[in-house]
Write a structure and sequence with these properties.
single chain; 238 residues; alpha+beta; 7 helices; 47% helix; globular
Length: 238
Amino acid sequence: MILMFLKDRLISVLAHDLRAPLSTLRGLFSLLQDDTISHEQMLDMIPNVLKKLEYTSDFLDTLLFWINSQMENFENSAKSFYIKDIVAYETENYYEQAALKGINLVDNVPGDVIASADPNSIRIVIRNLITNAIKFSGQNDTVEINVWKKDGQNHIISVKDTGTGMSDEQLNKLFKSKVNSKAGTHNESGTGMGMLFCKDLVEKCSGKIWVTSKQGHGTEFSFTVPVGVISKTRLEVA
């Protein structure tokens, strides 16, 4: 069901959502030839264009990785890795973006926790959860990443924020086919497909994903990942 819906949804996204930022960029370059636009006006337009391109780039990265995950040999890509390596890599990448919105991005993951899964699938999931938390958080909010052992077989990784939160109606639709993307606290856009991709990737890694949220009081996404064995080498994130 989810795969069939994603295919239909992708056609809509590729036909509309991905064309919009490209059209905006084309329009900006066209304005460079317009003598009536001042240099200051042009500089004012650039941040909005860059924001749209950044979200489009993140979505394409997730999309291309998800497409690759549908290949037959993907199930054999699991290996042991330190969760800290992935979380530190992603928090470092998004620390500046969070700081620009006045958000405190906190990595609480200890350095010795080992998981067994496809590491880049977990990286994509954590990235989406972090960017989603930043999107719906604002000045003086906090986004924190935690991990703890659920039992002898699984760890729980969570990304918790103190942002806008979700209504019960939004929660009920989140991992289902009826997906509507809301604008972020700084009017950030999105395709509404990120959580569907995350659900599929987590389940391919033998995990489960869920969310708790209250409107006006933040959101916490959590997912399980199998426990790994001790490794002498650190993960090199691709």
